[in-house]
Amino acid sequence: MGSKILIVDDQYGIRILLNEVFQREGYATYQAANGMQALEIARKHRPDLVLLDMKIPGMDGIEILKRLKDIDPDMKVIIMTAYGELDMIQETKELGALMHFAKPFDIDDLRAAVKKCLAL
């Protein structure tokens, strides 16, 4: 069984797309539409990598990232955002996110980044 990836995005279409892409690559994937689901899955399955959207209703990406790091300080996280808020991106880096992607992202770039992060 390959590495485990948790996809956290409130947009169903993006979750399905990323799920298909990464399952085809041989990864075990989990999906969460909100922060509470993401934290529950993270506690239960301890994913090797989290693809985390920043703009999620309820609990935003920064809060989810902080709580993921509480669960496992070494959890690898890649941020996805449709907004170019540099201060938010900087804060995610300080909180331990490995990199970020602006939406719409190139799926091949994201796939390469996932492979690279999981090899760290």
UniProtKB/TrEMBL annotation:
<feature type="domain" description="Response regulatory">
    <location>
        <begin position="4"/>
        <end position="118"/>
    </location>
</feature>
<dbReference type="Pfam" id="PF00072">
    <property type="entry name" value="Response_reg"/>
</dbReference>
<keyword id="KW-0597">Phosphoprotein</keyword>
<dbReference type="InterPro" id="IPR001789">
    <property type="entry name" value="Sig_transdc_resp-reg_receiver"/>
</dbReference>
<dbReference type="InterPro" id="IPR011006">
    <property type="entry name" value="CheY-like_superfamily"/>
</dbReference>
<keyword id="KW-0902">Two-component regulatory system</keyword>
<keyword id="KW-0238">DNA-binding</keyword>
<dbReference type="GO" id="GO:0016740">
    <property type="term" value="F:transferase activity"/>
</dbReference>
<protein>
    <submittedName>
        <fullName>Sporulation initiation phosphotransferase F</fullName>
    </submittedName>
</protein>
<feature type="modified residue" description="4-aspartylphosphate">
    <location>
        <position position="53"/>
    </location>
</feature>
<keyword id="KW-0804">Transcription</keyword>
<keyword id="KW-0805">Transcription regulation</keyword>
<dbReference type="GO" id="GO:0000160">
    <property type="term" value="P:phosphorelay signal transduction system"/>
</dbReference>
<dbReference type="GO" id="GO:0003677">
    <property type="term" value="F:DNA binding"/>
</dbReference>
<dbReference type="InterPro" id="IPR050595">
    <property type="entry name" value="Bact_response_regulator"/>
</dbReference>
